[in-house]
Specification:
Layout: E1 6-10, H1 22-28, E2 35-42, E3 48-50, H2 71-75, H3 95-103, E4 109-114, H4 118-121, H5 123-138, E5 147-150, H6 154-163, E6 170-175, E7 194-197, E8 200-202, E9 208-210, H7 218-226, E10 230-235, H8 241-250, E11 254-257, H9 260-269
Parallel strand pairs: 1-2, 1-11, 2-4, 4-5, 5-6, 6-7, 7-10, 10-11
Antiparallel strand pairs: 2-3, 8-9
């Protein structure tokens, strides 16, 4: 298991720019990051677009489910205006646009989150997965040094591990197990190479809640390291230096951050990373 400490820019440079837009990705690539994380959905006419939510309304001026809209309809949305007037006119990128940008930076890895789930969309999700991976291959974003697939779907984890066994694609899942769709029927941890550790719990009524402490206990890190699964964390921009220190002490190998600039400075101050560029 690789224990190198890595830094990933979450949805681009999300703190300062509208998430999952080309300007957010271009600005993130100016930072000293190891990888860029983003999200992919398929439209009703079989095109792959970049957006976190399956619905347009949170981040754009339009509404509707991406799986029910054509590419042309998705591209009518303004993906910048809700973040700030100065970003008016930013479009929802196609995945091919994003892949072309990443092809210019072979030193930066892609953390590709596949957001179409077979547990909800059936075969549509597998078609979406294959079309997205086909674009990755087309632009040379392939192999363990260039591509990690992230998913909340046990079905997608199994699909990639069986269909793409020879392609050496790293798969990234989530803890606690209840985040993984399909976990009741199959064990997602049979397929993943990395795991993001969320400090989530279930109350006595089975309702999910987020712990006040963003860093899970060391025993969870130790368990995954013991079975060869690389433990990672996600920090938004309001996490303090002590949280980074404790995550490192517990055994975190990867940090995915909304503010990758500040995150990188903290990790460098703590001596966690070697300067690269």
């Amino acid at each position: 298991m690789d224990t190198t400490i890595t830094l990933t820019a979450h949805r681009g440079y999300r703190q300062k720019f509208p998430e999952n837009t080309m300007i957010s990705f271009r600005e993130a690539l100016k930072l000293d990051v190891d990888s860029i994380e983003m999200d992919a959905h398929m439209t009703s006419d079989g095109e792959i677009v970049v957006m976190h939510d399956g619905e347009l309304s949170r981040t754009t001026d339009k509404s509707g489910k991406i799986c029910n809209l054509t590419l042309a309809q998705v591209r009518e949305a303004d993906a910048g205006i809700k973040f700030g007037e100065q970003f008016k006119g930013e479009k929802v990128p196609t995945f091919e646009e994003f892949a072309a940008l990443m092809a210019t930076r072979p030193d930066v890895k892609l953390l590709l989150e596949l957001k179409d789930y077979p547990e909800e969309l059936g075969d549509f999700a597998y078609i979406s997965c294959e079309k997205t991976l086909e674009i990755c291959r087309k632009y040379g974003i392939w192999g363990k040094d260039r591509l990690t697939v992230i998913t909340f779907s046990t079905g997608i984890c199994k699909w990639i591990k069986t269909r793409h066994r020879e392609d050496n694609i790293t798969i990234h899942g989530f803890y606690p197990r209840f985040h993984m769709r399909g976990y009741e029927k199959d064990d997602p941890y049979l397929y993943i190479d990395e795991v993001c550790l969320f400090a989530d719990r279930l109350d006595l009524n089975g309702k999910r809640y987020r712990s006040d402490d963003p860093v899970v206990e060391k025993g969870v890190f130790d368990f995954f390291r013991a079975v060869g699964i690389r433990p990672c964390v996600y920090f938004s921009w309001n996490v303090n230096e002590d949280d980074y220190r404790r995550a490192l002490e517990n055994g975190a190998c990867g940090f995915t951050c909304d503010d990758a600039y500040t995150c990188g400075k903290i990790l460098d101050k703590l001596g966690a990373r070697k300067l690269r560029r």
